[in-house]
Specification:
2 copies of one chain form a homodimer. Helices cover 38% and strands 19% of the residues of chain A. Chain A contains 16 helices and 19 strands. Chains A, B: Belongs to the NAPRTase family.
Chain lengths: 445, 445
């Protein structure tokens, strides 16, 4: 699936540049690579995500007649450009790291090689998708690492930045190891398990809290998780206990309770005791409310008897690092490597590959960034995924991506599995790549 | 316009709650209000935005047959609920502050009164839209305040959180006073002016920088803004000067240059001198590259000769405050006021109004938050916008909203126009509202 999007979802400069490319028939093969220049100070690694949506955009690359009409009439573009765009579709090759792969700064995760206008036009939307899903998968992985064995559910849709952000955050966090999401549409779109029971308004709409619990249970007998903090958390737990026998007579079990405010560890301990003593040892405790990986880690460390966490706003906005310093840069045109040398923004030229080496125990030890045709010891991470505009294989099932990500997280060096900033992971630049950069700078290439 | 969105773009608990409401025929009138509990520590005020999209969602409130089929088959919902949803449309009333209005914590900006299931179901998407547009309009207003007379352009689409975020950020920043956006689709959707010329890749795809400039100018003769920092900024400016006469012979003027890296103030001074001495005094200097309102303020204070700024990632992600602590809360049901009392999350009950008082010079002095039927001195900010599911007037033109926002920003207290945190703006809670809260707590209502 891909949320619907228009080819006008691009920066104007892509089209003004295309006007130049088309005018001067600059349609040789161009290679662009997407990479992150520098990891945020609060990230030890990143998790590649968004390739599936990026490939869908490339496959569907067509301007509609409505869009072409608008382009014709807006006064900015020549007939030659509009005619060119009318026939445009994507005929290029794509190489990429599989989604769910751990990566580091300067390592390309997607490489597009196509006639220059095609590869250029898609820049904005490819960055938009790869950046956001990678941002969220990388953030979500931190919660996954600190809460083994816990149920983690994405609750972020409402404060995600728009509809697509909410849906793609559901996908990215699931890919990184979350159990599911509250966002209903993520189920039909991506096949992600959905979770949810009741809000405070359900309780408040009733005059009596117990009556609200009871009605909810009758209406949703297979999914009875009761929100108990609307007025007083422990009193709410006691009401749950006294309601349980009445429900049991009708064959309904209480699956759990949710806490959403106050000192969650303290409430969880008290509520656990109330539930256990009330014969509800099987009912789980689920916690939510401004959570992030740091708070979850504290709660886990405090052995708070919480079985699952709903993590919302801070994950879906990647609150401590709401963007990545990423780029999609021209690395080669017409068979010749290219390099941007702007201050503080220089890039490595050419088509690149990343080789990863592992310790004897299978943990990642170091990477080497090199040019494509410079085989190195280690595992090559970048693989062909699209040839002449066609996928080389069907979409990778989300379950397989999730399994790959799980495996990747277990193979991280210990120091990088922590929330605190660890040592920089070693990414070596090969002699061949350094030589190439030098040759480009000296105009020998 | 409203980006397409499905009614499944909601949290699962809205539907499980509806299953209860429908089962027990809880369809009395419910009033929910959207407000921000507490301003981010880096905001002196917020700017209301997103109402237009929220009203569009309410007007279009219908489940499609595909969605109903999915709901029927997913195993979570009873036939009675699906039948109910099949007939659902929005029949409620909406009151709101006009978009572009300055507001503060605890002040509702949108109030929905409708049969409980309707008002409940829309919670997730209404928050999703109102939160994000308000977030970005409030962030953008800060740049507008520090850069009077400068051209400000939204460059954030690529690192905005998904497609909708990029488009709504274009709208929200324009509303707050930006001149336009790089996001092409914002032009047909919202009528927003679009800006853009070239990226580094255009330069890099040529062997020679001057050749790239020249081709761009011929291909886009009405929009010649040349990016000069790909290799060496001042050398780039000199090339622009030497190219100018050749272009002039063909009737083409160079409109300006863009700087995107390095010490922007220093480069701007040097480039201005090169352009002026080269007979290009009319060419503007446009700057971009990780800008935000703080950097723009510094550049303006340093009297850097920069005429316009492209502001991207940090604005479109509201990087210093990527979310607002906002809520859409049940305040009344079946004619009786309601109040959530969860620790740290208590709300003011009932339908509310905000009155604003001004100083003699027209600047905002203080607000009073009260119940709807408690007239106070000052200007009532909340007005009816939808009755029985129908808008009371056509969409407010974006130009009018922008003018209203401009006026609002000029009427802010001086201390709140600064980027630094000023004193809290006084929002008084009326006796009538305090009495109502007390009565609800004491179960007298």
């Amino acid at each position: 699936m891909n949320p619907p999007s228009s080819l006008l979802l691009t920066d104007l400069y892509q089209l003004t540049m295309l006007q130049g490319y088309v005018e001067y028939e600059m349609e040789e093969q161009a290679t662009f690579e997407f990479f992150v220049r520098k990891l945020p100070s609060t990230r030890n690694f990143l998790l590649a995500a968004g390739l599936e949506q990026a490939l869908s955009v490339l496959e569907a690359l067509r301007f509609t007649s409505e869009e072409l009409e608008w382009l014709s009439g807006c006064g900015l573009f020549r007939r030659t450009l509009v005619d060119y765009l009318e026939k445009l579709h994507f005929t290029g090759d794509v190489y990429a790291m599989p989604e769910g792969t751990v990566f580091f700064s300067d390592e390309p995760i997607v490489r597009v090689t196509a006639p220059l206008p095609q590869a250029q036009l898609v820049e904005t939307r490819l960055i938009n998708l790869l950046h956001f899903e990678t941002l969220i998968a990388s953030k979500a992985a931190r919660s996954v690492l600190v809460a083994p064995g816990k149920l983690l559910v994405d609750f972020g849709l409402r404060r995600a930045h728009g509809a697509e952000a909410g849906l793609l955050a559901a996908r990215a966090s699931y890919l990184a190891g979350f159990s599911g999401t509250s966002a209903v549409q993520a189920a039909p779109l991506f096949g992600i398990p959905i979770y949810g029971t009741m809000a405070h308004s359900f309780i408040q709409a009733h005059d009596d809290e117990t009556a609200a619990f009871e009605r909810f249970a009758y209406a949703n007998p297979d999914n009875v998780v009761l929100l108990i903090d609307t007025y007083d958390t422990e009193a709410g737990a006691a009401k749950v206990v006294s309601l349980a026998p009445r429900l049991r007579q009708k064959g309904i079990s209480i699956n759990g309770v949710r806490l959403d405010s106050g000192d969650l560890a303290d409430h969880a301990h008290k509520v656990r005791r109330i539930l256990d003593e009330g014969g509800l040892a099987d009912a789980v405790i689920f916690a939510s409310g401004n959570l992030d990986e740091s708070i979850v880690r504290q709660l886990v460390a405090a052995q708070a008897p919480i079985d699952g966490f709903g993590i919302g706003t801070r994950m879906d906005t990647s609150a401590d690092a709401p963007s990545l310093d990423c780029a999609y840069k021209l690395e080669e045109y017409g068979g010749r490597p290219r390099r941007k040398r702007s201050e503080g923004k220089a890039t490595w030229p050419g088509r690149k590959q990343v080789y990863r080496r592992y310790d004897a125990d299978g943990r990642m030890r170091s990477d080497i960034l090199t040019v494509e045709d410079d085989p190195q010891e280690g595992e090559p991470l970048i693989q062909p995924v699209m040839r002449a505009g066609k996928r080389l294989q069907a979409s990778v099932p989300l379950a397989a991506i999730r399994e790959h990500a799980r495996n990747q997280l277990t193979r991280l060096p210990h120091a990088l599995q922590a929330l605190e900033k660890g040592p920089d992971y070693p990414v070596h630049v090969s002699t061949a790549l350094r030589d190439l950069a030098k040759a480009v700078d000296e105009h020998r290439l």
